[in-house]
Design goal:
The protein has four helices and five strands. Strands 1-2-3-4-5 form a five-stranded mixed β-sheet. Helix 3 links the parallel strand 3 and strand 4. The longest helix has 16 residues.
């Protein structure tokens, strides 16, 4: 089941008139889908302004958090400005290396817990 679910993670790419790009993520981000998640993005060739929107996705475990941080670091190393939208409070708490990229919207952000040993 996990491996089949991992295949279902995908993005819808939107190129905006201002030159920015938005990735709308769909599916579950967890240990089995992290490799596929990382391959969905192109930090080298993407424009300077990039948004990853997690409104139609859910991060289930710490592997998902690490994958987000890996992608965020790849954008940072390539001099890109990345915003991460619609992450739960648990995700934001666990994302030590990407906190400055997270856009918080208390009315729209999801409310769920992430399976992780670091949280109480």
């Amino acid at each position: 089941f996990a491996w089949e679910s991992a295949k279902k993670i995908e993005v819808e790419v939107k190129n905006h008139p201002d030159g920015s790009r938005e990735y709308d993520l769909h599916g579950a981000l967890f240990f089995a889908s992290t490799n596929r998640f990382r391959k969905l993005f192109d930090p080298v060739n993407d424009p300077h302004e990039v948004v990853i929107d997690f409104a139609d996705s859910r991060v289930f475990d710490h592997s998902g958090i690490e994958a987000i941080q890996w992608v965020a670091e790849a954008y940072r190393k390539n001099g890109k400005h990345l915003q991460l939208r619609h992450l739960s409070e648990d995700c934001r708490t666990l994302m030590h290396n990407a906190q400055d990229m997270v856009v918080v919207n208390f009315h729209e952000d999801p409310k769920y817990k992430v399976a992780d040993n670091e949280l109480d």
